[in-house]
């Protein structure tokens, strides 16, 4: 079975930033070979010799937060269905949010690995704030900075254990 990692979470937490970081190197090679622009919702990545597809579910969600719940139930739900590992992304700058809780409720019902990623842990203060997300009841938290790449190695080490 294919290794598929879906990045889910409310708008603006940094899903596309992480997606771009993960697929950047291989995507650049593929674009160069084919000479075409790829669909940026799907990309290919690798870590310590393991290859996987990454889905940026945020690319599906447009408009205001009102339409967000509906979007979860449609395309985002399909991506989660397809995935072998789900990265549920939150944001240390804004802290625990009602939409995070809604997401947590949905992913808790899935019988597949869900890793809680606390993004924007750019410094020690924000890193400390990532502890808030233990309240989601989804186990370990992975504090990262998608912008700088900090913490992404530890996260990927855990992701590839599930392949
Ligand atoms: P998405 O809506 O979840 O796909 O979020 P984006 O990837 O578009 O990011 C939303 C905003 O957060 C952008 O302004 C990013 O530059 C910013 N951002 C993403 N990752 C980080 C991070 O690690 N630290 C900080 N400080 N900002 C970030
Ligand atoms: Mg996005």
List keywords for this structure.
single chain; Rossmann fold; binds magnesium ion; 163 residues; binds guanosine-5'-diphosphate; GTPase Der; 5 helices; alpha/beta; 6-stranded mixed β-sheet
Question: Could you explain how this protein is built, in words?
Answer:
The protein is of the alpha/beta class and 163 residues long. The chain has a single domain (4-161), classed as P-loop containing nucleotide triphosphate hydrolases (Rossmann fold, 3-Layer(aba) Sandwich). The protein is built from 5 helices and 6 strands. The chain has helices at 15-34, 68-82, 98-108, 124-129, 152-161; strands at 4-8, 42-47, 50-56, 85-91, 114-119, 141-143. Strands 2-3-1-4-5-6 form a 6-stranded mixed β-sheet, sandwiched between helices. Strand 2 and strand 3 (50-56) form a beta hairpin. The longest helix is centred in the N-terminal third of the chain and has 20 residues, at 15-34. The radius of gyration is 15 Å and the shape is globular. It starts with a strand and ends with a helix. Guanosine-5'-diphosphate binds at residues 11-17, 58, 119-120, 122, 145-147. GTP 1 binds at residues 9-16, 56-60, 119-122. Associates with the 50S ribosomal subunit. Belongs to the TRAFAC class TrmE-Era-EngA-EngB-Septin-like GTPase superfamily. EngA (Der) GTPase family.
């Amino acid at each position: 079975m294919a290794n598929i990692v879906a990045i889910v979470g409310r708008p603006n937490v940094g899903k596309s930033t992480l997606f771009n970081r993960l697929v950047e190197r291989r995507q650049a090679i593929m674009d160069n070979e084919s000479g075409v622009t790829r669909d940026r919702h799907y990309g290919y990545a690798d870590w310590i010799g393991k290859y996987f597809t990454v889905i940026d579910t945020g690319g599906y969600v447009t408009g205001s937060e009102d339409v967000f719940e509906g979007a979860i139930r449609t395309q985002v739900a399909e991506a989660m269905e397809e995935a072998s590992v789900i990265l549920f992304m939150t944001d240390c700058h804004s802290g625990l949010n009602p939409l995070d809780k809604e997401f947590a409720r949905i992913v808790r019902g899935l019988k597949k690995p869900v890793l809680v990623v606390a993004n924007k842990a750019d410094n020690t203060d924000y890193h400390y704030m990532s502890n808030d997300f233990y309240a989601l009841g989804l186990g370990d938290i992975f504090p990262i900075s998608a912008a700088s790449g900090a913490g992404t190695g530890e996260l990927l080490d855990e992701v590839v254990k599930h392949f």
